[in-house]
């Protein structure tokens, strides 16, 4: 017969076995719970990161769409330039000078795109006959700008500040005479060479030029102008006499002659600044850019060739708070490269720059900035009043 003491080992074994079963069950349950908690935490973390990522991507997409809308006009203009350049390289912009022209319309407002394009090609076919210091790429750019102004129906006058021997001016006037456009064309130059450089409050560096440099006598310009007058009148086109019609000579230094356009309230659609040095370039943009109508073009022939010219343009834009104009610049590159101004390329690859005056977008930006400043001022004033009330409330 078994004694009670004999049951003790069996009882202990059973108890240990039960404890092991309980521990195994509890351990497995805690592992499952821990795994469940980790999965939930991971899911929440991924959800939060996904939401944050979607917000960042959404903001980036909205910003990209806004920039694309703002640059749409510039990109369209670049496409027009590329089309013209491809036609030029393929030889389709150099027809025979005897190409028949449509009848001259009664007014410039009635110009047809066909006539403007035909006259553009006719003038371009004679490009080597114009006596000019301008390189061929720059001649094409200025002639293309004049064509765009005619196609867009802009009514402002033309001005060339820095005429020299007049080949570039005769080229532009040839296009105007060919299409029958009778707007005023201002020709500004001293015909005494560059003025004597002087340090101004704007130019902090000495000039690289000497007084009298690039001297061209006035008689040489008159000879060039009258030579083209004979050529075009022989073909039955009108050509204005100097100071006897729409060709208006402004002889003298820019600071003395260009303010006349402001005094006479002249509206411009084409401005060519070819003053080379700092003072001449600054005076050109200072007096003429405010006269440029919305949609008109301003062109700087020496922007990348002479550092003084570029510095004068940047100084003017900075002083007038128009630095965003740089985003609209088109560059004239060597080898007939025309396109959006790329500041990452080297200086040696560029010839000149131009841009179209955009008024609506700039005015909207100025209005937004004005509203922002007004709101900031109101918030600052309100905060100041609240601080005054709080300080008075703390006084016993």
Question: Overview of this structure, please?
Answer:
With 396 residues, the chain is α/β, with parallel strands linked by helices. It has 2 domains: 285 residues, Vaccinia Virus protein VP39 (Rossmann fold, 3-Layer(aba) Sandwich); 30 residues. Helix content is 54%, strand content 11%. The protein contains 11 helices and 8 strands. It has an 8-stranded mixed β-sheet with strand order 3-2-1-4-5-8-6-7, with helices on both faces. Strand 1, helix 5 and strand 2 form a beta-alpha-beta unit. 30% of the residues are buried. About 8% of the residues have low confidence.
Which outline best applies? Answer: elongated
Name of the CATH class of the largest domain: Alpha Beta
Q: What string gives the helices and strands in order? A: HHHHEHEHEHHEHEHEEEH
Give the rounded overall mean pLDDT.
74
Span from first to last CA?
98 Å
CATH topology of the largest domain: Rossmann fold
Query: Can you tell me the number of structural domains?
Result: 2
The total count of helices amounts to 11
Please give the radius of gyration in angstroms: 37 Å
- Structural class, by secondary structure, is alpha/beta
How large a portion of the residues is in β-strands, by DSSP E? 5-15%
CATH homologous superfamily descriptor of the largest domain: Vaccinia Virus protein VP39
Q: Biggest sheet, in brief?
A: 8 strands, mixed
Strand arrangement across the biggest beta sheet: 3-2-1-4-5-8-6-7
Low confidence ranges? 89-109, 337-341, 343-348
Protein name: Methyltransferase
Pfam families: TylF
Biased composition (Basic and acidic residues): 379-389
Keywords: Membrane, Transmembrane, Transmembrane helix
